[in-house]
Amino acid sequence: MILQLNGVNAFYGASQILFGVNVEVEEADSVCVLGRNGVGKSTMMKSIVGNLNPKEKSLVTGSIRYCGDELVGLPAYRIARKGIAYVPQGRHIFPTLTTRENLMMAERKAQAGENAWNLERVYELFPRLKERESFLGGRLSGGEQQMLTIARGLMQNPRLLLLDEITEGLAPIVVKELGEIIASLRRQNVTILLAEQNVNFALSASRKCYIMEKRPYCLRRTDGGDPQGSAEPVPGAVDGVCLEKGENMAANKTIRQMLEAGEFIWAPCVYDCTSARAVELCGYNAILLSSSELEFSMNGIPGGLYNWEEYIWATERIAGSSGLPLIVDGENGGGSPLQVYRNCKRLAEAGAMAISVEDEAGGGIGCGYGYAHKAGFLEADLFAANIQAAVDAVKGTECIIIARTNCRGGGAAQTGAMARRNGLGIEEAIRRARLGAEAGAEITMIQSINYAGCEEECIRIGREIPGYHFYPDLHASGGTSDVTFEQLKQWGFQLVSNHACMKGATKGMLEYLRENFRNQNTVYSENDEFDRRLGHEFHPFGFGEWIERDQKYTAYREQVRKAGEKRMETDVH
User: Fold this and answer.
1) Rg (the chain; Cα; Å)
2) What does residue 512 show for φ and ψ, rounded to 5 degrees?
3) What PROSITE patterns has UniProt attached to this entry (predicted)?
């Protein structure tokens, strides 16, 4: 056994990230740890190589043994010298050095008798790097930079190669090419431990796959790498399963990955698992948990009539029901930095890929809406401190923070009470958004700019506020959309939301129920086959896994019953 993790726990301060992780990697094996963003895959990798940030008061307990030697407590340089190469998430190349210089920086002579990785052999595996040998690292494409990081790891001539999220933010054609490279390394008996969220890539690149979630799942590959092939449970694991999209699995992409890839994000507002799944079936690329729609669905009226425990609970359920990344409307996060820190941290742990934190004094969770109760706005300095706390809370996860200010006032008539309310104006809104960006928020949003004729303000926002920009809800006036996606892109916006799920669901329910009530039967609703995948009733989720589980336990129950009857017959005779 070349690597063995036994009961590994990892902490950032008082926050525990890893809980009793057990992983085994044999010599010349390829093993993957698969899981959604934020479950601790990167933390596990950093724990192995001793690369957790001491400034974050990190701590690792349990045992990590490499070739029989204990690694916990050793400094990173001593672990690297033992023959472990780490390809980190985010690439981290030297942008001002050439491709060749990046590779030579990592060169380490092979041990006697080893088939050495040198520049010639690396270029044979990565011919594109040979073509770009004199290019500065910063001029390489994202896929080429990822190839460079893997090649740099091989130049260390490691006995064990750790690959952390190497498909992140890459186009499918590049991911396919990386898959071919990993397959080549496997044929050359390179020992690999891979952390990944791309299910298809992970299963094709590994012989054995651990699923990191809330329980220690493991899948052993017995067919040489065919994702559709047979599998058998690993001793000590709870079950041998392969989770597919929509079966309590993570988002296929993160919000950050999509933004870095230049993908425009359209996130309809959702309020439960069914609405989230409907959005996914329609082809959108993200979802946004609306606090107001959740309030309507839970209590019938808005006004903060639910608490943070319920909101976090809803976040976890919705994030686990869809393959789309979830943005969460975090209201004011609780109003003070420590409350914001705690609530944002828990939302990220629940599966949120982005969280908006606003400057509304009232907030919408547990204390009523500011625009309904004239509570006003937080002081700008407090808002900035809250954003900094939110950013700190999601460090180490794939979640990012949206600094949202509601202080502009006015806006589209469709926003109701908010549009009728006076604010502090666009100048103050831009100032606050910039404070949010300076505090570390990667995305900013100014509420109430969504109205016909908003072009001038939007152009200013795109020009004067750094980072990514979120347009708050599409609206239409006189049968024409107030803005188009092309306009938003030109103005410097990368994200947009809209409220349609609850209105559409309510309209459909009223239509069905009125007709059924009038006809005194269900012919109307049952004959409306609007989507054959959903059947007689609206079933947007697959039940195959649960049916198989039920059949398994039913069969076992029958087996126990027959065994008992047989024993009774034996006793009688």
Assistant:
1) 27
2) -60, -50
3) ABC_TRANSPORTER_1, ABC_TRANSPORTER_2
Instruction: Express each pLDDT in 270-296 by its tens digit.
Output: 999 989 988 887 889 999 999 888 888
Do 162 and 287 reside in the same domain of the chain? no
Query: In three state form, how does the secondary structure of 556-570 look?
Result: HHHHHHHHHHHHHHH
Total Cβ atoms within 10 A of residue 324: 25
From the number of C-beta atoms within 10 Å of its C-beta (0-12, 13-18, 19+), residue 456 rates as exposed
Q: 498: part of which helix (H) or strand (E)?
A: strand 495-498
Residue 551, C-beta contacts closer than 8 angstroms, at least 6 positions apart: none
Same domain, 162 and 87: yes
Tell whether 472 is covered by a domain.
yes
Instruction: Give CA–CA dist 386/400, Å, rounded.
Output: 14
Quickly count: other Cβ atoms within 10 Å of residue 476's Cβ: 12
Q: Output the domain CATH number for residue 64.
A: 3.40.50.300
User: Can you state the angle between helices 273-281 and 501-519, rounded to 10 degrees?
Assistant: 100
Structure tokens at 339: 């409350």
Which amino acid, 172? P
CATH of the domain at 378: 3.20.20.60
**pLDDT band at 458, cuts 50/70/90?**
very high
Do 359 and 335 contact (CB within 8 A), yes or no? Answer: no
Query: 371, 416 in Cβ contact below 8 A?
Result: no
Q: Which amino acid is it at 549?
A: R
For residues 8 and 61, is the Cβ–Cβ distance under 8 A?
yes
Beta bridge partner(s), residue 86: 162
Q: The dihedral of CA 67, 69, 73, 79: what is its sign?
A: negative
Residue 6's CB is within 10 A of a number of other CB atoms, namely 13
- Tell me the per-residue pLDDT of 360-385, one tens digit each, with 9 for 90 and over: 886 555 443 333 344 589 999 999 99
Q: Which structural domain range is residue 11 located in?
A: 3-232
The closest alpha carbon to 466, from 445, 442, 486, belongs to 442
Distance of CA 43 to the CA centre of its chain: 15
What confidence category does residue 54 fall into, taking pLDDT thresholds of 50, 70 and 90?
low
What is the C-alpha to C-alpha distance for residues 246 and 319, in angstroms, rounded to an integer?
Answer: 10
Residue 55: inside a domain: yes
Distance CA 504, CA 511 (A): 11
Q: Which residues pair with 162 in a beta bridge?
A: 86, 193
Tokens standing for residue 334: 């609780």
Whose structure tokens read 């090419």? 177
Q: Which of 201, 232, 263 is at the close of a domain? A: 232
215-225, pLDDT tens digit by residue?
433 444 334 44
**pTM of the predicted model, to two decimals?**
0.55
486 and 558 housed in the same domain? no
Residue 510 covered by a domain: no
Same domain, 195 and 272: no
Residue 289: name the closest of 324, 341, 245 by CA: 324
| Assigned token pair, 170 | 């890459």
Residue 517 lies in a domain: no
